[in-house]
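[step 3/7] fold_predict: job queued, chain A
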Amino acid sequence: MTAVGEASASSAHPYATPLPSRLPRAYIALHMSRPKPATFDKKKVVAENRRARFEYEIDTVYEAGIALTGTEVKSLRFGEGSIAESYAEVKGSEVWLVNANVPEFSHGNRFNHEAKRPRKLLLHEREINKLHGAVAREGMTLVPLSVYFNAQGRAKVELALAKGRKDHDKRAAIKEREWKREAGRIMRERG
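[step 4/7] structure written:
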């Protein structure tokens, strides 16, 4: 008996070489992950928390999916929504976006969604463990920076691990921003 893919010696052509039982393996990187982009692919920004970069010292930024119902997606596609007063919290092995306002869809029926319901954020287990450790041990806060749609049309949340700024840090940030603005104006005038 012959194995599949191998020819018997008597019936084979004299110049034919038998096929090896195992074909040579090309270089395939099995355990290499795809490199993450430096910035997230934002096609349409729906809501932005502009105050967060002033109020908090941003440490690490994550991209999280968000579990939405149909009317919530339609409402966000029309550009409605606010995350100005929202925050995220880790409960058990899940991360939730709390107090984000996605208004009811205007053409929704009786199955329309609640405007300020908690929404589950979709992250990898390793990322959730990192966030939980940082919040529990280091006293950091999970702040949503923006809600947007990516190139594939999926709703995403840009979530930051941040530490609150003191008042004197805020004053220093204002002073530095004004100085940069003034320096740019002077450079433009001098040409």
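[step 5/7] annotate
The CA atoms of residues 36 and 115 lie 33 Å apart.
The first strand starts at residue 44 and ends at 48.
exit 0
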